[in-house]
Amino acid sequence: MNITESATLAKKASISLANSNSDSKNNALIEISKALLERQEEILKANNEDIERAINENLSDPLLKRLKFDKNKIDDVISGIKSLINLPEPVGKTLAATELDKGLELYKISCPIGVTGVIFESRPDALVQISTLCLKSGNAVLLKGGREAFNTNRVLFNIIKTASEAAGIPTGWIHLLETRDDVNEMLKLDKYIDLLIPRGSNEFVQYIMKNSNIPVMGHADGICHCYVDSEADLDMAVKVVLDSKTQYVSVCNATETLLVNKDIAKEFLPLLKIELDKKNVELVGCPEAQKIIFVNSASEEDWKTEYLDYKLSIKIVKTIQEAIEHINTYSSGHTEAIITKNKESAELFMNLIDSANVFWNCSTRFSDGFRYGFGAEVGISTSKLHARGPVGLDGLLIYKYKLYGNGNIVQDYANKTKTFTHKKI
Amino acid sequence: MNITESATLAKKASISLANSNSDSKNNALIEISKALLERQEEILKANNEDIERAINENLSDPLLKRLKFDKNKIDDVISGIKSLINLPEPVGKTLAATELDKGLELYKISCPIGVTGVIFESRPDALVQISTLCLKSGNAVLLKGGREAFNTNRVLFNIIKTASEAAGIPTGWIHLLETRDDVNEMLKLDKYIDLLIPRGSNEFVQYIMKNSNIPVMGHADGICHCYVDSEADLDMAVKVVLDSKTQYVSVCNATETLLVNKDIAKEFLPLLKIELDKKNVELVGCPEAQKIIFVNSASEEDWKTEYLDYKLSIKIVKTIQEAIEHINTYSSGHTEAIITKNKESAELFMNLIDSANVFWNCSTRFSDGFRYGFGAEVGISTSKLHARGPVGLDGLLIYKYKLYGNGNIVQDYANKTKTFTHKKI
Predict the structure, then answer these.
(1) pLDDT at A219
(2) How close, in Å, is residue B57 to chain A by CA atoms?
(3) Mean pLDDT on B112-122
(4) Residue pair B363/B270 in contact by the 8 Å Cβ criterion
(5) CB–CB of A217 and B402 under 8 A?
(6) Residue B220 pLDDT > 70, yes or no?
(7) Among residues B353, B357, B359, B348, which one has the least CA distance to residue B324?
(8) Residue B107, class by beta-carbon neighbours within 10 Å (0-12 exposed, 13-18 middle, 19+ buried)?
(9) Which of A55, A150, A292, B301 is the most buried (most CB within 10 A)?
(10) Which domains are assigned to chain A?
(11) Residue B360: closest CA among chain A residues belongs to which residue?
């Protein structure tokens, strides 16, 4: 089947899937988790093949770690599905209701977006999370995973498709794309696909946006900042900056730039450096920072760089306003934290920073669908339309307006023989 | 000032505008309505110049009508601003709140999108509506109106800018673009502009989408349908179809295609034709329709055409399913109505039709922000992301996540010395 045929089928399936009831979707999710358990040997075998090939191709350790899909990971995705089953039905909710006139009632009803195309990285658990989120929210989906996880993805896809369709979910609601050519073909199918969710580098997301008319929910770079204010608790600041930078360096919510208020810089930076040195974090800094601690010089490019590594750029600022301005200039709009004892300064920072997640006295690493309590996430959006920050089920929903009348015509209101009541129901 | 400078200023202003309080925004709206009244002679003079030039350029009567901005129109926009003032403050609302752990609280807070670029048609009242909606929702805006309304737009813009900035709204929150080159320059400024709202033809919206990386909220074609079911009240059906087609033909929510169930077609079509003939509506139909009434043959192209004129295409369908399938194939996803006495058929139609507005026993002409009770509207969206159908204030808002902690780090949860509580607050 080529991609256009897959997308046509998905569009067709999406219409009935949008109207599947809660029980049948939850039942299909139960069947999927059963099948994952029953067919786990098959999954582990496929994943071993992927791992072996990856080792032969000299993939880096962090990538190998992401690729690994063992018994624990299977248990994790199954427990993820269970929590998804327990979430309330997201489709068919009345979001607003208005009487336009007597006997003319308007309802705003939540519904799935329709057909989504999701392109994700090498973690095979992403395939399970994304497809089950789509199922729960009533969306058909075309999936494209990382090349490295080819065999694992194929088995997982097969399990999910077989189990869900046997449980009565419309045939053709889920498809697996396997090549980059498939992806390029998908980008043209704005007639059938309503939303693209590319997960990956900023360049990759930009490539998708430039080459498709389909709306994109962007999961892009994270150039995140910590700002240590003049009124910070310095011990807390060390702890939070250390976690923000080093708890897991290769993820989008890790901090890349530290801003430090000049009033506490002399005391704070040496304290922080002791801890960062223990973790072998490479430091670069502005000239003012270089006067306090021994670090290399930061270039303009450093403020714009997502290191995803044990590296941190440091800048001394004179005021909180300067920190806010630096962040609004260089941040990717993902996550920024302020460390201060002053609540007013915290509120100023959180209000004036134009980012999806703004934090007071805690690590930037908290911006994540699981930690936010969304269950799984489809991605983190740094765009400002539709969904922002960690995106769970809500990001896969839109609404339609249903208007119930009894022969009502607009002409009656145009010539003022009738008037609108516009009462909330 | 060139467009990049305008957009840079708008971005800067948008940050403080996002944090302007309700009173200062409402006060600015009051000042704008006062200034519109005080300077009405200036507006009328400018509009007369536009009208004279338009007459010299042989603009069509409907276009001249849209261009006209007289005393009544001024009163209308002022009363629109008054109803906007009375709407509750949309910014800073807590949309959700979760305790992630003791002393670690997450708030989802509504906020403006930031900087919007709106390109609208020849009606000068659109300039007032859009800019005041942006002000109320805390968004900076770059406006480009129809060329025909050049003088009127310039005066209106000047009044709104002067009055709002004198009332304390940040300088540079509003800009007027005057040429097509300006628009093309604006399309490149994804660094400063967060959202484009093009209003106009489908081709125009497609052009904008193809030539910009900025997210687009599409206000595009309306290929709307009425379906007269086998169980329709035929008198009601005549009345509703007539209103849907002829109440105002040049707008996107006017019906373009009529689908008629074969069981009532012989009785219904002659009744309808009498009324449509009185309004000189040109009819084209499928072969089955041609057997019942004397009409020209409809081509495949007709099902895809938005006439915006006194013309209707007619197709006989065997079942409601065939009607649904025809609509899901040819509709632009705007508005579709079913006329039937059978509630179950109505629900089936409204659930399976993938359009923004789905109506039972009433005219397609009702899909409109004013009729829906939204006050003004920025446009009607046929896309399925962010906002769908008539878009009022809500479509100009997004949210940010604020997380309040006390030194919390992710490492404590990674090594399970702490666990998330995820309690609703």
Answers:
(1) 64
(2) 30
(3) 92
(4) no
(5) no
(6) no
(7) B353
(8) middle
(9) A292
(10) 3-219+390-401 (3.40.605.10), 224-366 (3.40.309.10)
(11) A404
Burial of A88 (0-12, 13-18, 19+ CB in 10 A): exposed
Q: Among residues A195, A41, A212, which one has the least CA distance to residue B213?
A: A212
User: Which residues 23-42 of B are in CB contact (within 8 Å) with A?
Assistant: none
Nearest to A113 by CA among A7, A220, A215: A215
Residue written as tokens 């081709």? B203
pLDDT at residue A112 above 90?
yes
**Does residue A196 surpass a pLDDT of 70?**
yes
Residue B103 phi/psi, 5° resolution?
Answer: 80, 10
What are the strands, taking DSSP E only, across B146-286? Answer: 174-177, 195-198, 224-228, 255-261, 282-285
- Check residue B121 and give its pLDDT: 78
Both structure tokens of B301:
């192209």
Chain-chain contact of B409 with A363 (C-beta, under 8 angstroms): yes
Q: Do B420 and A233 lie within an 8 Å CB cutoff?
A: no
Rg (CA), chain B: 25
Length of chain A: 425
- What's the ipTM? 0.92
Exposure of B354 in the CB half-sphere (CA atoms within 13 A): 27
The pTM assigned to this predicted structure is 0.92
Say which residue the tokens 């930061």 belong to.
A298
The one-letter amino acid code at A15 reads I
Nearest alpha carbon to residue B332 among B252, B221, B226, B200? B221
Pairing of strands B140-144, B224-228: unpaired
Over residues A330-357, mean pLDDT: 97
Closest C-alpha among A196, A191, A192 to residue A215:
A196
A306, B262, B311 from B362: Cα distances, Å: 55, 21, 20
Contacts of B413 in chain A (CB under 8 A): 371
The answer to whether residue B337 scores a pLDDT higher than 80 is yes
**Does residue B107 sit at the A interface (CB-CB below 8 Å)?**
no
Cα torsion B311, B317, B320, B325: sign: negative
pLDDT in tens, B28-81: 999 999 999 999 999 999 999 999 999 999 988 878 888 999 999 999 899 989
Q: Which of A98, A217, A366 sits opposite B410 (nearest CB)?
A: A366
pLDDT of residue B219: 64
The alpha carbon of residue A399 and the mean position of all alpha carbons in its chain are separated, in whole angstroms, by: 21
Question: Confidence band (pLDDT; 50, 70, 90) for B170?
Answer: very high
Q: How far apart are CA B66 and CA B145, in angstroms?
A: 13
Q: What is the reported pLDDT for A412?
A: 97
* d(C-alpha A193, C-alpha B330), whole Å: 16
Q: Who among A14, A366, A420 is closest to B373 (CB)? A: A420
Q: Are A117 and A3 in contact (CB under 8 A)?
A: no
Q: Does B357 touch chain A (CB under 8 A)?
A: yes
Q: What distance in Å separates the CA atoms of residue A23 and residue A21, rounded to the nearest whole number?
A: 6
Residue A177 is inside which H or E element, if any?
Answer: strand A174-177
How far is the C-alpha of B57 from the C-alpha of B149, rounded, in Å?
13
**Mean pLDDT calculated for residue range A229-247:** 98
**Residues of A in Cβ contact (< 8 Å) with B422:** 373
Residue A220, pLDDT score? 67
Q: Alpha-carbon distance A196 to A186, whole Å?
A: 9
Q: Residue A120: its pLDDT value, please?
A: 87
Pairing of β A397-408 and β A104-112: antiparallel
Rounded to whole angstroms, what are the CA distances from A304 to B5, B44, B279? 22, 50, 63
Retrieve residue A223's tokens: 């150039």
Three-class secondary structure of residue A420 per DSSP: coil
Residues composing chain B = 425
Taking phi over 0 as left and psi of -120 to 50 as alpha, with beta for the rest, A93 belongs to: beta
A110 at interface of B, judged by CB pairs closer than 8 A = no
Instruction: Let me know: does B424 contact B98? Beta carbons within 8 Å.
Output: yes
